[in-house]
Write a structure and sequence with these properties.
By secondary structure, the protein is an alpha/beta fold. A four-stranded parallel beta sheet has the order 3-2-1-4. α4 links the parallel β2 and β3. The longest helix has 16 residues. The chain is globular.
């Protein structure tokens, strides 16, 4: 049993917070597969009341299919995986895939919040800061260009 598997047994059961939020990320063949698996493992292990929150992983453009081992691990981690190939006349725009992935994740969300998380993120504690306060409609963290 890995460390993450052992830690996940300590994860708190889903609360109202965990049911309110759906996490979403892009996943594509290659290093993003490993990163997305680690991302979800860390949420399941250290997410506390968010540990069992819905997670949607989207492949938002053409390319090689994910490895069978990734799809098996997604099933074990209860990840809703979907592959889409939207009509995109701006294929030269490298970040537009996130828009299409988030749009798809929103369709599949079960709560009232959708939180985008890049695949290079690891959760080391419950992501309580991702919940919006009653006076907020949107939250974001600007990308650091430095």
């Amino acid at each position: 049993m890995s460390f993450l598997q052992a830690a996940s047994k300590l994860a708190a059961p889903a609360s109202d917070h965990g049911r309110r939020i759906t996490f979403a990320a892009c996943v594509e063949y290659g290093t993003l597969e490993e990163g997305t698996i680690r991302l979800v493992e860390s949420l399941r292990a250290f997410g506390g009341e968010f540990a069992n929150a819905r997670f949607v992983a989207v492949t938002p453009r053409g390319g090689a299919k994910l490895q069978a081992s990734t799809l098996r691990r997604f099933a074990e981690l209860d990840v809703d995986y979907v592959r889409i190939n939207p009509r995109n006349r701006y294929v030269w725009q490298p970040y537009l895939n996130k828009y299409f992935a988030l749009k798809e994740a929103e369709k599949r969300a079960t709560g009232d919040l959708v939180a985008w998380v890049d695949s290079d993120v690891l959760f080391m504690r419950p992501p309580s800061e991702m919940l919006l306060r009653p006076d907020e409609d949107f939250g974001a963290c600007p990308r650091d260009k430095n």
